[in-house]
């Protein structure tokens, strides 16, 4: 058993997942019965199947990474492909880099497993700034939010290694009220419809959906993050203690994300720096059953939003006009126009008649 489960990363991940499911023993039995090969695998209490989607995944030896239009993944800025990882930024000041999937994702329910490593020379709080994982409408747009554009449209998950807000408070000799301070490195999530700015000076506090402390720097074991999106439920978990267990970080129901967005990862360094490496990104399609009511509720959306959370400036666009509505508007406009011309002609003739009478 140990030989089977321990030999490849794939099995290990499944083994860990098995430990986490409520029905772990059943999962293990299933693994042993099915032997090796690709999914689908049944997870949990018989509701979910998973399939690895190669077109949205990245792993060694990174053959599909490059600049060409045939590449599955494109690099930006200072990002570099090495043999064991894709380095978003090196441990040097003022660098930024990104990695973007070229294929839009049209899955309704998915899970992204991120194997990453953040390490560098900097001692406590003298390193930065962290990395971000994206599921957004736009791709390959460099900017100030961990190397990506501000006012993005979609989901951003940030592994923030530098406490900007805390450092400012310290400089102003102010203290946090208890329960407000966040311990860094810190993972947080943000959903944006393109109207919100990420507040870098406050580490995204005004717009965060949730977050947790994640001590992830300079570790000698592998660190993972998983972003799961199932039935509009966003769950973020991490495996950063070297214990091969997923630990809860963020859970938000009612997250509406459109389909057809792109997965990406980005990072930035400023005065402080770190190596920000992506070792693998594995996207799984989750096949879940929906009741007819859920089917109705989970219809496609055109803009990202979060239920019961009034984010400032969040405004939905007017629904696009249907063909019939457009036809009726044009038709009645024309009728009105013709009617106005006819009235105009009649009035003009009457006025002419009257002025002629005045002459006689
Ligand atoms: Ca920060």
Automatic annotation (TrEMBL):
Single GO molecular function: metal ion binding
Superkingdom field: Eukaryota
Topology of this chain in the membrane: Single-pass type I membrane protein; Single-pass membrane protein
Cellular component GO terms held in the UniProt record: COPII-coated ER to Golgi transport vesicle; endoplasmic reticulum membrane; endoplasmic reticulum-Golgi intermediate compartment; Golgi membrane
Limits of the L-type lectin-like domain: 50-286
Subcellular location: Endomembrane system; Golgi apparatus membrane
Residues annotated as signal peptide: 1-45
Transmembrane parts of this sequence: 324-348
Keyword terms of this UniProt record: Disulfide bond, Glycoprotein, Golgi apparatus, Lectin, Membrane, Metal-binding, Signal, Transmembrane, Transmembrane helix
InterPro entries: ConA-like_dom_sf, Intracellular_Lectin-GPT, Lectin_leg
A Gene Ontology BP annotation from the UniProt entry: endoplasmic reticulum to Golgi vesicle-mediated transport
Protein name (record): VIP36-like protein isoform X1
Species of origin: Erinaceus europaeus (Western European hedgehog)
Lineage, opening ranks: Eukaryota, Metazoa, Chordata, Craniata, Vertebrata
